[in-house]
């Protein structure tokens, strides 16, 4: 064992985007001999509570507790030097790491990935998402001022599917990336940034920040490598040079001088609690040579016994992690387990905490099979399985049924299935976007005055032409046709749930109405359809999540 590392994730949606990089770095450090703890803060990922319950102080305490737990887990004999402790943060996670370092009680070391110099910058950047949404709705006037007023008065605010408490916002706004108080012995700091330029260089903020920490007595290495801004890119991206630099820098820090003085006192407060919850277990299982990470939700002992035989495998759509609106899967699994159903959530290969290259939804049939097998191994009482999926995960569930008939699978819960093609997207845009715009007097006034660019008109014409295209093509069977075939032949129960405020759901209905492959499938026996008129794509409103949880529980009770 070479050392201990506690990872502190960034804020809100940046946690979602960066989880793959965090998992890859954690595995790389583990291979080098470091024990790595990836902690989900209160209300995030798989941890307890809701995001709206969190405060900045809660999160700092979580990081300190994680350091104590990891030290207690890997305590050494009193006559040997303690293992060096590193707190590794990304973006706002660096602010938490710096503050936690002053409370750990002795020397620790820090790794900063692309840190914010002050929390108010991160908060302002996030609140702009709300202002941008108001702009699209024509209500931008005073949006930021109203958000600030709500926070100052102690009210929570809703931004992009996240509920932020006033205490969290105010704590984040006060946070700054400064060295711990003088009573804490200085350690080592690795300050790393990524740059898209051919010759990467440290930002002015990074150069100035590194100087401040050096002046405080810390041994600082500051550097930049080539790589994308993976915490905010549209697609999930990797920065391999950053991974390699971090591993190399930690190894070199060991040989840079005598070991740093660290405490050998054992922290027993959490060392014996291995579970992520009273009825939740994290474990890894194999899929074609890669390690898939899953969370198993076991029903409590007082749960209804009759439901134990029906297990649920939750397939996560796209490269999403359990943050923001995508944390609905955690809420769903806990609700189903409380009703007596064993539930397995898992990350497909290359997504979240699982290893391997990224796969598209059409390529994860082996992952679904491996998860179903794992659920049955872990809970032998499971006699039937329901697959639950949102968006392209719903499509993946149907594709699994098409490619691998599995007699254990007796139900498919499909929320806003993904069937996108160029023609279907065009039809949806023409019917639900352009049709609405053409009825607005302001649009015609802008058009006649020349304030609507010709590109907008050309876009409408292009979509009209694409919308006339009929589904179907030569070559391999399109995934939409395979979905329809599985829908037709599946002899179990189907639950179709559609959000009223969602273009993916509207596109699904448009596609099914225009495609001969889907003719008559909405009348098939064993199909239950539920419309959630005010819900968005991911059921980001808690009321919609609770409604879907109840609908799913009732439907599971009727599976054959």
Task: Describe the secondary-structure layout.
Elements: E1 3-8, H1 13-31, E2 34-39, H2 56-73, E3 85-90, H3 92-101, E4 109-113, H4 119-136, H5 143-152, E5 157-159, E6 162-164, H6 166-174, E7 188-195, H7 204-215, E8 219-226, H8 240-254, E9 280-287, E10 290-297, E11 310-315, H9 328-338, E12 343-346, H10 365-378, E13 384-390, H11 392-403, E14 409-415, H12 422-438, H13 441-449, H14 454-467, H15 479-489, E15 493-499, H16 503-514, E16 527-532, H17 542-556
Parallel strand pairs: 1-2, 1-3, 3-4, 4-7, 7-8, 11-12, 11-13, 13-14, 14-15, 15-16
Antiparallel strand pairs: 5-6, 9-10, 10-12
Please give a structural write-up.
Helices cover 40% and strands 18% of the residues. It is an alpha/beta fold and 560 residues long. The longest helix is centred in the first third of the chain and has 19 residues, at 13-31. Residues 258-277 have low confidence and may be disordered.
Keywords:
560 residues, alpha/beta, eight-stranded mixed beta sheet, six-stranded parallel beta sheet, 16 strands, 40% helix, globular
Short structural summary:
The protein is built from 17 helices and 16 strands. The chain has 560 residues and is α/β, with parallel strands linked by helices.
Query: What are the low-pLDDT stretches, counting only 5+ consecutive residues below 50?
Result: 258-277
Average pLDDT rating: 85
Helical residue percent band? 40-55%
> What is the 3D shape?
globular
Task: Say how many strands there are.
Answer: 16
Largest sheet: 8 strands, mixed
Which strand order spans the largest sheet, edge to edge or round the barrel?
9-10-12-11-13-14-15-16
Radius of gyration: 26 Å
């Amino acid at each position: 064992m070479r050392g201990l590392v506690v990872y502190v994730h960034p804020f809100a949606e940046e946690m979602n985007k960066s989880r793959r990089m965090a998992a890859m770095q954690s595995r790389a450090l583990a291979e080098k001999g470091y024990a790595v703890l990836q902690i989900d803060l209160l209300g995030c990922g798989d941890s307890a509570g809701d995001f709206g319950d969190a405060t900045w102080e809660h999160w700092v305490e979580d990081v300190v507790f994680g350091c104590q737990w990891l030290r207690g887990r890997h305590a050494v004999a009193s006559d040997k030097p303690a293992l060096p402790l590193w707190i590794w943060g990304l973006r706002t996670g660096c602010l938490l790491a710096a503050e936690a370092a002053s409370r750990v009680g002795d020397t620790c070391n820090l790794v900063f990935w692309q840190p914010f110099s002050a929390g108010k910058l991160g908060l302002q950047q996030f609140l702009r998402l709300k202002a941008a949404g108001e702009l699209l709705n024509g209500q931008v006037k005073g949006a930021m001022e109203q958000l600030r007023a709500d926070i100052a008065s102690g009210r929570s605010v809703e931004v992009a599917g996240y509920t932020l408490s006033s205490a969290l916002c105010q704590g984040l706004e006060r946070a700054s990336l400064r060295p711990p108080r003088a009573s804490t012995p200085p350690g080592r700091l690795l300050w790393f940034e990524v740059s898209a330029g051919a010759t990467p260089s440290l930002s002015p903020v990074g150069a100035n920040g590194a100087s401040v920490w050096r002046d405080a007595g810390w041994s600082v290495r500051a550097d930049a490598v080539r790589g994308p801004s993976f915490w905010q890119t549209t697609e999930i991206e990797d920065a391999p040079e950053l991974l390699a630099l971090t591993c190399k820098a930690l190894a070199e820090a060991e040989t840079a001088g005598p070991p740093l003085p660290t405490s050998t006192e054992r922290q027993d407060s959490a060392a014996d609690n291995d579970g992520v919850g009273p009825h939740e277990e994290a474990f890894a299982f194999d899929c074609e040579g890669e390690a898939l990470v899953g969370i198993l939700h076991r029903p409590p002992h007082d749960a209804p016994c009759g439901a134990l035989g029906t297990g649920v495998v939750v397939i996560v759509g796209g490269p999403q992690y359990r943050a923001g609106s995508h944390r609905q899967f955690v809420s769903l699994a806990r609700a189903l387990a409380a009703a007596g159903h064993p539930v397995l959530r898992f990350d497909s290969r290359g997504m979240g905490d699982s290893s391997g290259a990224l796969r598209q939804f059409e390529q994860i049939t082996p992952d679904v099979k491996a998860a179903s097998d794992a659920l049955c191994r872990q809970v032998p009482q499971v006699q039937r399985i329901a697959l639950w999926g949102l968006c392209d995960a719903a499509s993946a569930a149907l594709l699994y049924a098409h490619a691998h008939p599995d007699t254990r699978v007796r139900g498919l819960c499909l929320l806003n299935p993904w069937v996108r093609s160029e023609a279907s997207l065009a039809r949806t845009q023409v019917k639900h976007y352009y049709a609405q715009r053409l009825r607005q007097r302001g649009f015609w006034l802008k058009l006649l005055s020349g304030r609507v660019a010709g590109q907008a008109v050309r876009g409408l014409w292009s979509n009209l032409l694409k919308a006339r295209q009929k589904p179907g093509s030569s070559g391999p069977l399109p995934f939409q046709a395979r979905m329809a075939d599985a829908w037709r032949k599946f002899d179990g129960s189907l639950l179709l749930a559609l959000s009223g405020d969602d273009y993916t759901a509207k596109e699904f209905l448009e596609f099914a109405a225009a495609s001969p492959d889907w003719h008559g499938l909405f009348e098939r026996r064993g199909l239950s359809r539920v419309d959630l008129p005010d819900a968005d794509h991911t059921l980001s409103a808690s009321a919609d999540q609770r409604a879907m949880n109840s609908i799913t529980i009732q439907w599971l009770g009727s599976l054959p």
